[in-house]
């Protein structure tokens, strides 16, 4: 006897010794006659007729072994045991992929040599076995729906990175991505495939045909008269592009969709199969037979109520059966065909999983009577078969297949010992167990039965001017309303069915998160925690370098939602038991987790940089605030040598638990086709080599006091105990001491936030594409219907074409609206929205608590801020219009909290990462574009608002100023001169790419924030001067760059040959133009709010700033308004990419500034401004006159122009001779009069007043200006007289030049001496 897991167990060897040596006693357990009857009932002979009980030979335990062996060998023919090869096939058994010589390109192949992932442009691989006569089949499980060609090829086919299966004469393929068949040429064939489909490849060499089936449905004969005869044999083969993955089934498992008459390439294990079915029959007999010892008779009973009571007769009988049954249950074919189907049969009666305790009893039996390695292998194969079955089952309306397999998975995981074994060794290490939480989206709506479930389809038919759906159209007809409601009812029916599956998935996760199952060692939750952390590490560390190792984002989305539901249910259970503890509604991740070393963040970027750096720089703060002393050994700098040493000593130092799986740990678990994880063969045409092991996942660190490797942590390290805080070690004084029931849930919560950051947000954005497609087709359909209504009756040909289009659009919309119903139920439902909203609130609370810790805020991982910004973006952009963000509980308060975080941290010195700073800035810029979020910014405390404005007004040098400038522009838009537009006038007729872009929102200026800006600039003179100086510098740079680029574009246009302008260059050119316009608008805003900065010359730098402003405005006006100028010619080319470049935005911005300083100000200020403007040598009055144009020549905004051809390399520029030379006089001038919708009458009158005023002033200036001798002119600008002398070097220039120079540099223009002072200079009178 030996003991397993504390249960007394009979191993097979011990049992047989006992039964052979102790025959008389073993039959004395029950009387011999009853035992004999019992054994005959359990082991009936198939060959003998049921003999009369009295004539039947007595059977006891001593004869049972030989009796059982005889029964198992009955009907076994001698050929079965030798297993000759079937005629028509050549090659080894089992059939696998040929990873030694039969491939081309780079590939990853799974350990079982059946799964493959493409790792180069177009890789090909074939199987090891070929066929030359007969009818053969194999199956391919599609894991990704990309470009692949699957079929058959001969040995003579030669493939390369461009040509694969089907591209050579003797190869034939089906491609469900492009829905075509290939054999040198290609034609349409079949249906499109999706991830989770099964393709059957059928080859009939007797008839010379090849057929393909998709999920068991024949797609028709693809090829006939294929080449056959001597020397021709066909191998299964595939070609696949980068990152595509599949798994083959040549017959190592039962074919999912066997076709009558076709044999699998690999023989099924027939003999073992017969034995397994017989033995399973005997087990069923044991379960359904009981002995009544008092009455001395046998009774039939219901299998479902059988219990393992330790009856010796039953146990010894079962031990004999398991002696033969256990070794068979290590074979994948038998587990899938015999055991899995038997267990599924037990659950078929319906009811909850708890109502079927037989599965628990059978698993107890397995652990009792099978060797440990056999149970392990059996459970592993069973879970793999279940996962494969779940993933590759077709979608049917009631999701019956998925529910069936999930119920069995739940039943198995309810068994504590099995659950812990699977968690420890299988679920995350060998399998893609996340698949169990995924609900695939059907690509083919009809096959999924959605037509029956949602018989009536609906899509939006009412759009506003900007093409957005109207949420509640007022003029909806009764027919439309009925259709919409019928569609919504169908969506509800679908949602209820999906919720059944989701509930089962949550049950599975709740089992894995069980922390009360301590009878067999460590509770499941702590095993799950460690595995989950490694799963996150693999997905975080492989981004970019090893994309095939990542968990697909569509799985992550479903896993995230189920995990949130399971965690919150456990959290709330704890709160019910202890009402004083933190509820899940108030959940957050306490800041001490980020620095106390209890949770591994595997070198993820922190807000203050890398953790190793922070531990050095903030060690005193940690000791003072959190009572955490970092072990000095941990602070030593890690050089490259240290890294090398770690690499070598990793295996030696790894803890025991990890050493057992050492080889597996070195490879990514996700290099898998459908289910298997560990892909260790990396195939390359250049050389076949094993994949280089990556660094072990949790690198053991040097001996230290506090930081623990994931595997080394115990329950006490996580939950804490008396005198220990567990995960909450090192609480800073600022952090409230609030009880948290299950500290382990904090770590899972932290992992959920990380998951959202890794790929969930990106996937949420991707799936919105279906809704966008519905919208586009709905707009197209409405447009077509309007054209049909307008079509003249005499044009039947046009009407016919329009009706065809109408039919196509309507069919597509029927399909897409049903698909959208599925996506809305699985991804964008109200419940999922609440999950993302909860996550947003968790991140906001976490950031607020971390912020209170002062300098320790730097330890917070960056992803918390990222998720806060992204989750808000997802709620706003992805879940509408079906679910509105305004309906969320506490929505306005959450918006204000997030606004406070963005306002405070976009310029927080504790945050060092440029990417995260950029993201914060962009988020704030987007936030101020929408009225609701802008009001949230206005609701934050005044002190924080003023601090935000001060940060926005900091000088623009040495920081990403374009974003802050854009924020200031948005606060102004709607107040400036002619600045009330959403889209530029000349772009109105074009359709915007995305009407939801922040830049396309209606103006919503903030007068409150403008007031703060005015107060700051008027009170802090130094800041105002440096801010405006930097704005003017950037404007000078941006406009100069823009002019330089359009010169290059114009030169390309004037060359006689066809030229290409790089699209990137056009984009940069347009960006420089947009920057120039936005900088001009900020200047307009400043001039309007605080005119004294320029016009009150008692301020130290006012005159200088005004002169610089005048200089830049004159340059811009001259460049944009001159006759036959460069700007005109490039605008008239209308190049793609330069759409935003036009006269209106830049001229109106300049006009706004001029009107403010020359018309709207006090008299003293306007005369100063006029004198400075006129004294600038670049000033030209006709530039101002150009703004109003000649009244007779005013034209519409869009100037006539010939559209250029577009080239493949970018934008082709056709010589623009007519525009440049021929018709310049015919072209009508720009004029503000043309933009009546954009510029008010009052604004036009102000421009006319300004023109009159400048005309008058320029006449007076011309009359009073005395000629100046050239020697007296400033040697720098040659525009003004010399008026300043520098100390100590005595060089001279005008005041404007030296003042402008001294703002950025202290060295003399001429001799580079340091200038210590500047004095006024007056020319001495000549004697």
Automatic annotation (TrEMBL):
Localization annotation: Cytoplasm
Top-level taxon of origin: Eukaryota
Keyword ATP-binding included in the entry's annotation: no
One Pfam family named in its UniProt record: zf-C3HC4_3
All residue ranges annotated as the RING-type domain in the record: 1274-1312
Enzyme Commission number(s) of this protein: 2.3.2.27
Record protein name field: E3 ubiquitin-protein ligase RNF123
